[in-house]
Amino acid sequence: MRWCLFKCVTPPPPSVCVSGSFMAADSPLYLGLDFSTQQLKVVAIDGDLRVLHENSVHFDSELPDFRTQGGVHIHADRLTVTSPVLMWVKALDLLLDKMKGAGLDLSRVRAVSGSGQQHGSVFWRRGASETLKQLDPDQNLHQLLQRFTGNQIAKVHQNRAEEFQDTERISLVSSFAASLFLGCYAAIDHSDGSGMNLLDIRTRNWSQICLEATAPHMDRLLGAPLPSTSVLGPVSSYLVQRCGFSESCSVVAFTGDNPASLAGMKLQQGDVAVSLGTSDTVFLWIQQPRPALEGHIFCNPVDQQAYMALLCFKNGSLTRERIRNECSGGSWEIFSAALRDTPLGNDGHIGFYFDTMEITPPAVGVHRFDSADTEVSSLCPQVEVRALVEGQFLSRRLHAERLGYSIISGTRVMATGGASSNQEILQVLSDVFNAPVFTIDLSNSACLGSAYRALHGLVVESGVSFSDVLKKAPEPQLVATPASCSQGVSGPGDITDVLVPADPLTWGTSGSTRLSVTHLGTPSPSHPSPQLPPQGSVFL
Fold first, then answer.
1. Which listed CATH number (1.10.1200.10, 3.30.420.40, 3.40.190.150, 3.40.50.10750) goes with 317-388+484-518?
2. Are 386 and 347 in contact (CB under 8 A)?
3. What angle, rounded to 10 degrees, do the helices at 85-101 and 173-182 form?
4. Is the pTM of this model over 0.70?
5. Dihedral over Cα of 360, 363, 365, 370: its sign
6. What is residue 150's predicted lDDT score, i.e. its pLDDT?
7. Region of poorest pLDDT, from 138-152, 166-180, 190-204, 217-231
8. How does DSSP classify residue 421?
């Protein structure tokens, strides 16, 4: 493979219009990039956090020579997925060229950060560090991208021993991208490194037991991990000379796309973000994590003393659409009316709707229970609509609390995705989490979060928190607040029962028990937040 030289960016006129905003010629800019699966995107913000420029390169359509489908190559075994790393280099070349065409002066960029798709690894051939420093276009560079990093490093070591022996460094997609800006190997950050199953999230160092179980010499191949807020160094002299970056422009550690999205959603302690799409995804800010077999816990990308968690639920909008079709004649208006016309708590009726094998927890099937805890074959249409929505959101909250999440004073629920346009669904979400719900735009959250992190990285050493940096950021829109306690099931501190099966794959009342969970009431000394069962219990 050959390195692709970046296009030179010539200085623009003293004042240019980018994305509809006139910018002073000397105002500082901060870049956030996202190396996602299908495209490379960039956002430029100013010191007031205003977005002044956005751009992207779509791999399949704009770089057809690499013959990717969805940005990847799927191998004959239908299991191995790789991506041509040189494609990312050329995409960056094209992206910088587009930014030049829009009149963006890269000499004004004070810091750059970015994100990459998680669980991807890039193997650098021996001698690649010298190639990075010299950027000789006649040098070959071999990179291989795999999924599920820790396991795939072990697979390469076992099945491609000769190539593994010739490996000088192993990067994540995020640290690879940062290396392109640094002109040398960039450290893996704590947050993205948490997703490798190799990092001890308590000590924030590699776990020697996990490294030894993966492959030899892993300490040397991975390098020492660094805090996600670290300034790695200035941009390379190559980018200064060829692209017009300032010599004082800093590269802040790149991270994974999910941690960057948490930054872009502007979450803070106690917040939860719920993406209501085909699959539902829950982002959590956690202070005291309790790792479990379900869900993912990462070091927090913007607070070195905190953590974040990620939960994925496969049965999301498609399941809601099925119940809409069956119980509301395909009408969202009738579906919403059913939620308005049924009481909070649904008079004790609840359901679990796993149309396909669920991720969290691993269960399948549809199970409905009446107020007497008896499993029934059906519910009346209005009751079934609320049973579905309350059951889904109770599951989201229960699994979140199992990982260590707790609702505190000031907790906000950030909603995004297709179902976040439905006011009645959001009202149930607010009631279940007993917190106000706000809507946010998730479309560019990884890019925007990276730009915010670039700015934060320059001031974090002086004690400025991420929330301080975000004071000028646009506020999310408040759309729902929890109903008063008097409208609950039967008063403050009430409980709604949630089913916990003895075996997540074996359903039926004979093999099931009920877990009482404080729900919908305001937490107080006499009615504290629910105490969860010990580790190993299965939540639904």
1. 3.30.420.40
2. no
3. 50
4. yes
5. negative
6. 55
7. 138-152
8. G
